[in-house]
Amino acid sequence: MRLPYWLLWLGLLLQRLAELRRSRANAAGIKGSLADPEGYPLMVTVHVGLFVFPVLESRLTHASKSVAGTWAAVLLTAAVLRLSSIHALSRQWNVRGLVPADLHPVTSGPYRFIRHPNYLAVAVEVAALPLATGAWRSAIGLTLANTWVLRRRIRAEERLLFANPDYRRAFTSKRRFIPGVL
Description:
By secondary structure, the protein is mainly alpha-helical. 64% of the residues lie in helices and 3% in strands.
């Protein structure tokens, strides 16, 4: 595996660790309901796997592709989308799916266009980081696992979110991931 991959790997890992810290601080100030608390350990497992399985696969299969160009750009774009999602949600953002009882729907940033830009960014990262080193088996496996975990989370989260009339008004007409499509 080449240095550019390790730089992307390390950058994404540091981003995740910083997000966990911010999430803990935000969650401490939120009174509300957890969406799919049983699913959180599964989500953690997928994210740990994101940093372990591609490295193992690359070592075992001797797969190694340069990340210069396409995959680096895809990961950077996903990171920008994640950070803008987190910034828009501000103190309401957390990794556990804790929906505030006094929810104030956010309709700025990427939430102007779709309901779940953060989850879209995660899905892209889960596929792109393994592909950046040629670990296509990891990309497929992690993407399938992530899809299952996010499907659970999103359904539970939306049950809580759509119970709020302001959220329902703001987001009923918006798609989950791709404006006007999905």
